[in-house]
């Protein structure tokens, strides 16, 4: 049941007004952080990303997804990059992270940075820069990435199993997940626009196209099309979030929501209640520049989610393992 059928908009607004932003906390970040210690850092990241996305455009949404999944678990700390060891249960092994990719790209960037500026640039900052460049390479906005993050010396597989926003979530649950990190409903709607690029597996959208969950919230022709995709390929059958421009970072995602053609349950939950979120979705669907501006602002805000104060951190020399 969606929020518009279970919770009043007044309650939603009260909920959001009670949230104190924790996105920056004691996290002192700066766009000029590496200007002296590694002035070539951003150029190196941009060069590797341009090469990789030219060879395989799907690397771009994969990199953006890595950054999201990192920041939503104990802050933007590079923990999603760690491999399992006797003392670390890797977040890579959590079910929601099973289809993450792009780790090799991060490793290549890190290798070049270690050659140019040893022990200077954190893996968490590489993720932040690579996701920004990924969006720009697909025609999306760019922004000044705030830098100076450190890498955690541990991972949290349990949190990765339970705390990431689910593709099957209703609006109440989605808002709660974003609120936990100091992100408001405008941030949530803007950041969800990342789904204007990339694909999802039938496993994650079949609840919407097969069951009664969709109902009047789904275009029948779209539901039938996606059922055919699932029938042809099973749970691993891939479908684009945006059929028209699947690898172009634009505002087509919001046009699809208005047309009741959102791929995931969690996508379509953003539209249909007739309240403030509907107005925001409609604005983005009509004004791609407004979406681009708000997405960039929300990415900076999400990128400022700080790890817990007690977390042990460092600048890893290799992104998949802690320093010895």
TrEMBL record:
Which residues are listed for Ca(2+) 1 binding in this entry?
70, 75, 77, 79, 91
Q: Which InterPro entries does the record match to this protein?
A: Haem_peroxidase (IPR002016), Haem_peroxidase_sf (IPR010255), Peroxidase_pln (IPR000823), Peroxidases_AS (IPR019794), Peroxidases_heam-ligand_BS (IPR019793), Secretory_peroxidase (IPR033905)
Query: TM segments?
Result: none
**Gene Ontology biological process terms, A to Z:** hydrogen peroxide catabolic process; response to oxidative stress
> Catalytic activity, per the record?
2 a phenolic donor + H2O2 = 2 a phenolic radical donor + 2 H2O
CC cofactor: heme b; Ca(2+)
Q: Which Gene3D superfamilies match?
A: 1.10.520.10, Peroxidase, domain 2 (1.10.420.10)
Q: Which SUPFAM superfamilies match?
A: Heme-dependent peroxidases (SSF48113)
**Site, as annotated: Transition state stabilizer:** 65
Q: What is the documented function of this protein?
A: Removal of H(2)O(2), oxidation of toxic reductants, biosynthesis and degradation of lignin, suberization, auxin catabolism, response to environmental stresses such as wounding, pathogen attack and oxidative stress.
Q: What is this protein called?
A: Peroxidase
Q: Which organism is it from?
A: Urochloa decumbens
């Amino acid at each position: 049941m969606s929020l518009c059928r279970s919770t009043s908009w007044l309650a939603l607004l009260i909920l959001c007004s009670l949230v104190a932003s924790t996105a920056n906390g004691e996290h002192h970040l700066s766009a000029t952080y590496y200007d002296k210690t590694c002035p070539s850092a951003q150029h190196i990241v941009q060069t590797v990303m341009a090469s990789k996305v030219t060879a395989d455009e799907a690397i771009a949404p994969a990199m953006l997804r890595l950054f999201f999944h990192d920041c939503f678990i104990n802050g933007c700390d590079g923990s999603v990059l760690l491999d399992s060891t006797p003392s670390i249960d890797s977040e890579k092994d959590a079910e929601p992270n099973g289809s993450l990719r792009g780790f090799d790209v991060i490793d290549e960037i890190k290798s070049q940075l270690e050659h140019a500026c040893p022990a200077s640039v954190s893996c968490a900052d590489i993720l932040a820069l690579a996701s920004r460049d990924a969006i720009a390479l697909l025609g999306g906005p760019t922004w000044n990435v705030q830098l100076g993050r450190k890498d955690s010396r541990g991972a949290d597989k349990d949190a990765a199993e339970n705390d990431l926003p689910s593709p099957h979530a209703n609006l109440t649950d989605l808002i709660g997940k974003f609120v936990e990190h100091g992100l408001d409903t405008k941030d949530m709607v803007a950041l969800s626009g990342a789904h204007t690029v990339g694909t999802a597996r039938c496993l994650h959208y079949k609840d919407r196209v097969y069951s009664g969950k969709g109902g009047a919230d789904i275009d029948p022709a779209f539901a039938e099309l996606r059922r055919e995709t699932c029938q042809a390929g099973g749970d691993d059958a891939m479908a684009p979030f945006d059929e028209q421009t699947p690898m172009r970072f634009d505002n087509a995602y919001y046009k699809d929501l208005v047309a009741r053609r959102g791929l995931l349950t969690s996508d379509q939950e953003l539209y249909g209640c007739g309240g403030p979120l509907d107005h925001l979705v409609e604005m983005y669907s009509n004004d791609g520049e407004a979406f681009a501006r708000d997405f960039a602002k929300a990415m900076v805000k999400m990128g400022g989610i700080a790890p817990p104060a007690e977390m042990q951190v460092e600048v890893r020399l290799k992104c998949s393992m802690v320093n010895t």
